[in-house]
Amino acid sequence: MDLSIKKNDRPNYGILAILMTGAFIAFLNNTLLNIALPSIMVDLQVETATVQWLTTGFMLVNGIMIPTTAFLIQKYSVRRLFLTAMGLFTFGTIVAGLAHVFPLLLAGRMLQASGTAIMMPLLMNVMLVSFPVEKRGSAMGIFGLILMAAPSIGPTLSGWIVEHYDWRMLFHFVTPIAVGVLLIGFFLLKDKKEKVDIRLDLFSLLLSSVGFGGILYGFSSAGNKGWESPEVFLTIIVGCISLVSFILRQSKQTRPMLNFSIFKYPMFALSSSITMVLNMAMFSGMLLLPIYVQTVRGISPFDAGLLMLPGALTMAFMSPITGKLFDKYGGRLLAIIGLSITVVTTYLFSTISLDTSYQYLMILNTVRMFGISMVMMPVSTNGLNQLPARFYPHGTAMNNTLNQVSGAIGTALLVTVMSNRAASSSASLAAETGQVSEAIAVRAMLEGINFAFFISSFIAVAALILAFFIKRARQEEDQIETPSSDEEGVPSLVGSNS
Fold first, then answer.
1. Which of 264, 294, 342, 456 is placed for a possible disulfide with 371 were both Cys, Cβ 3.0 to 4.6 Å?
2. Distance between CA atoms of 130 and 124, rounded to whole angstroms?
3. Which residues cross the membrane (predicted)?
4. Which domains occur in the chain, in start order?
5. Cα–Cα distance, 282 to 305 (Å, whole number)
């Protein structure tokens, strides 16, 4: 297969469709599980701190695996990586669906995570090398539509399944689809790759795993264990030391596992900063709103999923539109408008009360998701556009790794803010009334949620300020000819009909 990119080459849309379907199934499964956690706790007789490992463990495996994907993409063909990723995900889904004890369920989730960690960077890399810069916004917009559709239907579908069937049906529902995608990929993916003489530095892999894994585990555990817990601050410290050692080691290697020199490209560095900050703010809606709806207001899981549905659908359907707007106007205008909407709506969430209507919450969340949809994909694409083609695997791996880290930090920060404010408010209200009641606990929780949204609005302001420095990125190297596979190992599906 010719791995060079030419202006007249046509992307292989059939292969892209296979990759996107696999990514869609993986993303759908991730969003299905959250609403089922209470049912799993009862059925498998585990505590909240234990069942949370289904989410934390998934995030940890992603954080450990994703940095290696830059190496894997350069070393192996798209076919081999896709079949490996989809195979791991499918096997994990089957194991989780048959689990009768918690450790087996957790093992299934870990297998799913290892497949998902390979899938996302692989797909993004193929998208980048398949489309020229001037058409990349529209292409990434379609990509965003498909991936955003999964979290849009996930919570509602999950709520309906959990109310009518056993939670294992969530995995049984996904299994035949995953098997079908795996078989289609096996028979239709035919791309080949020249042998690339690069080897994985095992010590770098160890440093990366301890570094990203330690930081993710520490921040993810902070919400439950508290910042003063040695398990929290010691793992963060060890993670930071390992990560610094990993970065220093990579800077001295000819073929680094993850190339940190990509941060020398200013638009990539800026886009990474904005998406990390916005990720932290975005988690306020994803985390705090369901807590408010179900815990404070007592709304059922299915209705809670329905409340989030219009916002998620808006984000999905806006992706191709913002992609076209990005190609025409660039990322700066879209980011400023989108982040302004995000700041205002996030602040308005800090003013919700016990009497706020269901319709108001739905509309406010939908408008907020509309704002976020104008930022995430355009800003990320603008940053990747500046990178030379040989750095695409490193750019996509870095973006996905930073998303995991910022998500963990944002979750831990907002949970801590909410919990501390709720505790102090509860103590204050109890002192005023001279008694502790369920009504006081609910009011305290509401105040904690309001304050966390208030802090989140300031985080969004930081992203808005950074957005004013965005410039339309131009690729640093020639866009017509990129290094061949034996030089850099950049996979491409452009012009391939095999």
1. 342
2. 10
3. 12-33, 53-73, 85-107, 113-133, 140-161, 167-188, 200-220, 232-248, 268-292, 304-321, 333-352, 451-470
4. 13-198+255-467 (1.20.1250.20)
5. 17
